[in-house]
Structure formats: structure tokens, C-alpha cells
Amino acid sequence: MTDLARFTVVLVRPDSPENIGLAARGMANTGFSDLRIVGLDKLEPPAWRTAIHAESVIEAARFFPSLEEAVSDCEIVLGSTARARHDFPLVPLAAAVGRIAEYPPETRVGLVFGNERTGLTQEEIGRTNVRFHIPQAARQPSYNLGVAVTLTLHAIAFQDAPPPAARRDLPLSHAEQAAAGRRFRDMLASLGFMHETNRAFIAEKVQDIFFRMALTAKDRDVILAMFRKALEGPRERRPRALGRKERP
């Protein structure tokens, strides 16, 4: 059975307190409890009115100034969006649930949902390891926030088939993945690979690559060693010691 305590629901800059309450209700209905909210420092009374039988979820909600801080202790972060970015794949919800199952059962998972009107920003989407969309009829632009949260959690909690055995190693925490990306970008700059005309593009691309990989500690250390070797440059070959000349 899936350990739901390792999942975190993150609402980023939600407009409507009613929607926060509905999201909390969906969490309670499906067995989730860890709610984190970005961009607010308190909840308004309407959140309690719609959080029917989910008061414990609302009361335990935590507030963060940024998405980066809200998911810093997660190891895999999934973002709900309809916005594709470069060649980073956007997968349907069912595929995203399958990706979660590829990691060890103790992996801490963040599920991120954006503002009701504007969704996640490009920068926020760039901080996710997996980007997913919830299939819908083409005429509807998006699901209500509370509905989107509930559909996602229901798909995770009540999978039709038992999850497959984990095939991937435990990733670094999200904060450590972000720190590794920054170190690699600094090394690229030291190698002269980045300059003023391409700096923003390369920085975004490197972030996409490393979050898509969901780096493990071994991945980070190997790549870091390669970069260090490149910065050191090739070693000078020592001349071979000359042997004694053969007598004629």
C-alpha cells in the first residue's frame, strides 16, 4: 500500500480561500495530510467553510515565501501544468503516477499546483522534475484547483494495479538538486561555455536537464568529477625514462 505520509501538496499563490478548502477536503477524502501554501501567510475564513471534515488538514497547513523553500525536502517534485517547455516532456497524469512508482517507496514527493488563473510561472515549472497534465475535454481550459488536486490524489491513492518494483535510485533532496545545478552552471561559466548572449538560455537548459534527471548523489559526484577534470585541463605527459644503450 502506498505510504501517503511521504506526499506533500503545494498550492502556489492560490487566489481563492474556498479553493484551498476544497483542496484540503480532497486531501482528507483520499488520505493525504501535508498541505503547504506558497505566497500566503494565513488563511481566510472561507477556507474553513469549504474544508468539510478536513479541518485538521487546514489547521496544519504551512506557509512558505517561495516554491523552492516549500519543496526543499522533497526528492521528486511533480508540477501540474498545461504549459510545455522546450523539450522537457509533459506527460498525462497516469504516466506521472507511474513515474512516482519507479522510485523507492521512501521517496518524498511534492505535488505542485499553480494559481487558478495563471498557473505556475515558467520559473516555477522549471523547478519540477516531472510535469504533468490532467486530460479533459478540449473545450474546457482547465480544472478547478480543488478538482485538480482531488483527481491527482485519487489517482495516486487508488491505483488500479499494484505499483511496479522501484527501478531508480533515491534522488537527492530538491534543495541539493538545485544546488548541484548551480555548481554545474558556475563550472560551465569557468570553462567559458557561457557568455552574456547565451547565459540565460544555458542556465535554464542546465536546470531543465538536471531536474529531469532527478539527480542521485552518485550522479552528482560523477558529473562533478568530470567537470573538475575538465577545469584542471590535460595532464602533461612525463617523458619515459631512457634505458641504457645497447652495446654493439
Kindly summarize this structure in a few lines:
The protein has helices spanning 17-30, 46-50, 55-59, 67-70, 93-101, 122-125, 145-157, 174-190, 199-213, 217-232, and strands at 7-12, 34-38, 62-64, 76-80, 90-92, 109-113, 130-133. It has 248 residues and is of the alpha/beta class.
Structural overview:
With 248 residues, the chain is α/β, with parallel strands linked by helices. It folds into 2 domains: 154 residues, 3-Layer(aba) Sandwich (Alpha/beta knot); 59 residues. Helices cover 41% and strands 12% of the residues. It has 10 helices and 7 strands. A 7-stranded parallel sheet has the order 3-2-1-6-4-7-5. Helix 1 links the parallel strand 1 and strand 2. The longest helix is centred in the last third of the chain and has 17 residues. The mean pLDDT is 86.
Instruction: Look at the structure and name the CATH superfamily of the largest domain.
Output: SPOUT methyltransferase, trefoil knot domain
Which CATH C-level class of the largest domain is it? Alpha Beta
Count of helical stretches? 10
Biggest sheet strand order reads 3-2-1-6-4-7-5
Which regions contain 5 or more consecutive residues with pLDDT less than 50?
A: none
Main sheet specs: 7 strands, parallel
Number of strands: 7
Query: Average pLDDT, to the nearest integer?
Result: 86
The share of residues in extended strands comes to: 5-15%
Which structural category fits the helices and strands?
Answer: alpha/beta
Oligomer: single chain
From the alpha carbons, calculate the radius of gyration and give it in angstroms.
Answer: 23 Å
> What would CATH call the architecture of the largest domain?
3-Layer(aba) Sandwich
| Count of separate structural domains | 2
Helix-strand pattern, N to C?
EHEHHEHEEHEHEHHHH
